């Protein structure tokens, strides 16, 4: 039993953060500091003194973060207290802990530190459901992750005995947990590991576009705050003069070529840095553990009992090279920010066959145990929902796809024609849009081919999308409700959109533009008995209406 006096002891972060926090503050304020230096130098003032003063201020603020931040872990809560003028205490009940992410940036790794983020799965859109400890020692962070998620009785008793014998004033870095004598490390099974040949999918992720935006924003801020005239910089001036001498087609081709090369290189580099050393394992405590990253390492643990399904995503460019990515549909992860940032990623962009095989291994009750066999049935003899055939949505859904695509295209073309006629817009704008009509038809056809659904092995399977085609396999036991929506145009086409509401992932997954009778059948079969009163009432109303006519 933990001593109640020890429970109230607030502990500080690692003293090594006195190096990390000031460095982070200086880097965050770097554009403003450089702007002060350039502005002061160009005006003949003492810009370097202002820059030094700014650096000193950032260092002091960074040190104050360590002095004003404390935390404690009790049997019931995890609490963080921070703030100098305004004290703030964030409390997370331990029974509400859903995820524990352990992240180590370059400087953290040099100093042997790690940042711990405890997520509860609530208010993730506003970052209110997460508690951050930046930073603990790597050993303490790993111990805390195991303690909060696995909740092993042996671990708890060991931790309790260790804490109770520790000095109340001791630093948290001095607290260690010794496993019980004779114990063995928890068994783990490796499900996937990063392979060098997967790097070929890097250029097709288009993540380099984010790098373009970041670089452009940094340069713009630097130029604005430093009052720098790029026209006076020799290389920039010469390049602009050479570019201005080109014809319009060559200018467009040059910009596109440079952008493609830069984005491809940046995307490949980002892929390697983000997913290097990737590893997915299953632990005997009932968790999936994902580790990834070269410079910045990140470890995410997902409890399998909270797993409700998987999502296989195929962006258009990635699909062209037979690639896909895999994400978990589970409670407690930040699906609102995307799989890559939110921690729900189970497999980075990789061969589609590998994504499918890992999905089959991750899903409960349908794994065949053969990682490379993507078409084998599960133990019950039924086909895996990841590879099961899907039911098409019929000609009405096909007409709706082409009608919507042609409608948007016609509106854009009409607007450009009007601007060309009355405002003198160049004619090549509407001619280009008119020439893209075949691509619109191909997009509409691809969107229809992507539509499909199935109900098999206790899972609802739905697929949609063209720019990003997604196939979601959702456990029916995790569905808490069904919504059927019909717009004016859907009613005329006798179609409906069925939404399976769940507490996991994006909280709702749609079967789009399906026949109304099929939507009702899926809902009734997915949750037997849930819709029976409504279906009986609907049949009664239909019968009375027919008799009155």
SSE order and pairing:
Layout lengths: L3 H4 L3 E2 L4 H12 L1 H13 L4 H21 L2 E4 L3 E6 L5 E6 L5 E6 L1 H6 L1 E7 L10 E8 H13 L2 H13 L22 E6 L14 H19 L7 H11 L3 H28 L3 E5 L3 E6 L4 E7 L3 E9 H5 L2 E8 L8 H4 L2 E7 H11 L31 H30 L3 H9 L1 H14 L1 E5 L2 E6 L3 E8 L3 E7 L2 H5 L2 E8 L5 E8 H11 L5 H17 L1
Antiparallel strand pairs: 1-2, 2-3, 3-4, 5-6, 5-11, 6-7, 8-9, 9-10, 10-11, 12-13, 12-17, 13-14, 15-16, 16-17, 18-19, 19-20
Helix pairs in contact: 2-4, 3-4, 3-8, 8-10, 14-15, 14-16
Report the C-alpha radius of gyration, rounded: 29 Å
- The average pLDDT value, as a whole number, equals 78
- Please report the total strand number as a whole number: 20
Strand content: 15-25%
Which structural category fits the helices and strands?
A: alpha+beta
Globally, the shape reads globular
Q: Helix segment count? A: 19
Largest sheet: 7 strands, antiparallel
């Amino acid at each position: 039993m933990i001593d109640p006096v020890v429970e109230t002891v607030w502990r500080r972060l690692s003293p090594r953060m006195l190096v990390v926090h000031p460095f982070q503050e200086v880097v965050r304020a770097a554009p403003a500091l450089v702007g002060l230096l350039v502005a002061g130098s160009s005006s003949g003032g003492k810009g370097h003194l202002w820059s030094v003063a700014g650096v000193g201020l950032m260092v002091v603020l960074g040190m104050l973060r360590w002095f004003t931040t404390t935390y404690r872990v009790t049997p019931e809560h995890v609490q963080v207290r921070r703030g100098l003028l305004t004290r703030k205490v964030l409390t997370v009940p331990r029974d509400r802990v859903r995820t524990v992410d352990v992240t180590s940036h370059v400087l953290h790794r040099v100093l042997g530190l790690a940042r711990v983020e405890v997520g509860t799965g609530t208010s993730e859109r506003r970052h209110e459901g997460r508690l951050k400890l930046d930073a603990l020692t790597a050993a303490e962070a790993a111990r805390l992750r195991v303690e909060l998620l696995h909740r092993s009785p042996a671990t708890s008793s060991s931790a309790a005995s260790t804490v109770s014998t520790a000095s109340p004033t001791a630093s948290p870095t001095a607290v260690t947990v010794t496993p019980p004598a004779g114990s063995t490390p928890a068994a783990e099974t490796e499900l996937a590991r990063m392979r060098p040949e997967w790097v070929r999918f890097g250029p097709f992720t288009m993540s380099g576009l984010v790098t373009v935006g970041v670089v452009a924003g940094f340069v713009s801020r630097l130029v604005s705050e430093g009052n720098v005239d790029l026209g006076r910089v020799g290389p920039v001036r010469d390049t602009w003069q050479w570019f201005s001498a080109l014809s319009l087609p060559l200018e467009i081709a040059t910009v596109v070529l440079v952008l493609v090369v830069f984005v491809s290189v940046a995307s490949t580099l980002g892929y390697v840095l983000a997913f290097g050393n990737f590893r997915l394992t299953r632990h005997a405590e009932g968790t999936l553990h994902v580790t990834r990253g070269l410079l910045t390492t990140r470890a995410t643990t997902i409890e399998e009992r909270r797993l409700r399904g998987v999502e296989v995503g195929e962006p258009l460019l990635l699909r062209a090279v037979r690639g896909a990515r895999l994400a978990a549909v589970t409670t407690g992860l930040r699906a609102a920010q995307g799989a890559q940032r939110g921690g729900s990623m189970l497999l980075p962009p990789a061969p589609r066959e590998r994504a499918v095989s890992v999905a089959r291994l991750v899903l409960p009750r349908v794994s065949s145990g053969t990682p490379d066999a993507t078409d084998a049935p599960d133990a019950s003899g039924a086909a895996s929902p990841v590879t099961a055939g899907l039911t098409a949505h019929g000609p009405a859904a096909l007409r709706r796809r082409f009608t919507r695509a042609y409608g948007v295209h016609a509106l854009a073309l009409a607007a450009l024609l009007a601007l060309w006629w009355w405002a003198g817009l160049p004619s090549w704008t509407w001619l280009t849009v008119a020439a893209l009509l075949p691509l619109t038809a191909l997009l509409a056809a691809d969107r229809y081919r992507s539509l499909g659904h199935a109900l098999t092995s206790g899972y609802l399977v739905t697929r949609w999308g063209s720019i990003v085609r997604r196939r979601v396999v959702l456990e029916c036991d995790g569905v808490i409700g069904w919504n059927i929506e019909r717009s004016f145009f859907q009613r005329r086409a006798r179609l409906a959109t069925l939404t399976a509401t769940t507490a996991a992932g994006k909280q709702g997954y749609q079967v789009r533009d399906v026949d109304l009778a099929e939507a009702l059948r899926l809902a009734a079969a997915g949750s037997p008995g849930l819709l029976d009163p409504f279906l009986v009432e609907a049949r009664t109303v239909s019968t009375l209406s027919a008799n009155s006519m």
